Amino acid sequence: MTKTQHDSETRAEGQQVIVACALIHHSFDGTEKIFLPRRADTKKFMPGVYELPGGHVDFGEDIVDGLKRELIEEFGKRITVGDPFTAFTYKNEIKASHSVEVVYFARFEDNIEDIEIHPEDHSGYEWFSEDDISKMLIGGKTEDDEEYKLIKRAFSLLRGEPLRS
To answer: Closest by alpha carbon to 50, among 40, 38, 42, 41?
Structure first.
């Protein structure tokens, strides 16, 4: 599949951008882990930071279809998309835009051994357990980061605990 040409660095002056992300989880010998790719160090927006996989939804595109497309483009993997988990907003100073990010629970449909990495997008990936997630606090991310907080909440839900506000 051909990669869509927009990205987190393409100017979108004053526009609102829809971003769909997947909280991909998998059980490794009874330990639930979440897939987090690490952005390439050459990126202008959040270089070297671990992030939830996903990307921009094209104008007129269904949000779930856009999320599936992004995972095929960036990792060569098909996903099964579950329920939306959360949504949040942020300003992207590089794009000069306002993003609305919707995060869905998801799973890889295929085996997890042959995940493709495109060096212009990502430098690698890791599967993080709940005990490992503090390792994602690099590149300026802090415990106040929205993705960090939502991943902590996701582990609670994956354990079957009720969502607290």
So the answer is: 38
